[in-house]
Amino acid sequence: MKNLKRNLTLGVLFFLPVMxxxxxxxxxxxxxxxxxxxxxxxxxxxxxxxxxxxILLKERITVLIFLGTQPMDYTIAALxxxxxxxxxxxxxxxxxxxxxVRNGAQDQxxxxxxxxxxxxxxxxxxxxxxxxxxxxxxxxxxxxxxxLDSNLSSPLVYIIDKDLNQRGRIDDREKNEIANxxxxxxxxxxxxxxxxxxKNKMSEDLRILFTEYRQKxxxxxxSSIRRADDLKTNNE
Length: 236
Hints:
Layout: H1 2-29, E1 35-38, E2 61-68, H2 75-89, E3 95-102, H3 106-116, E4 125-130, H4 132-140, E5 153-160, E6 166-168, H5 175-179, E7 190-191, H6 195-218
Parallel strand pairs: 2-3, 3-4
Antiparallel strand pairs: 1-6, 2-5, 5-6, 5-7
Helix pairs in contact: 2-6
């Protein structure tokens, strides 16, 4: 009887990991990559990052936000971004958050840093400063639902990959919407004032993008990424 129990225990211990790996196999090899919604995003080489080495988007996975001339007006958006995205992904290689700020707003940036980082250094969160024309040029190179406001700012944030492609969802419909033939609509930017959107959709999209790059490094990535050269035909 003891031998039977021992053999059953050993069998369970052997087969459980095998079953677990078989369960994971489809999810690691048959997932949908995060889509390219806009290519050739402008880099930020004309911007200044005080007390830091030059900051660029190229070769980094970047979350980009525009804080303009009044960064403190977006304290809630910045806090949501830090707690729901930055804190979750700051340990990943080549990840960064970049805030676009108008020249002259340095004092407000320091206040904002105190608000969102009272207990730690924002090592992977950078603030870069540029002129109005520089800021508008960067924003123009993105696919966005809205224009910047009069202060050159917005609660919307963007995911930029290492090759200066903007990533998002060409079709953001839920399963029931697809079943009901709801017209296709896209998700090209994420609203930091909408906690559910940042916590669920944006965090998931970043996780998928990091998975893509991890598989590329291992030579396991074999999937064409859907692109949208022009999303004007979609209902955004």
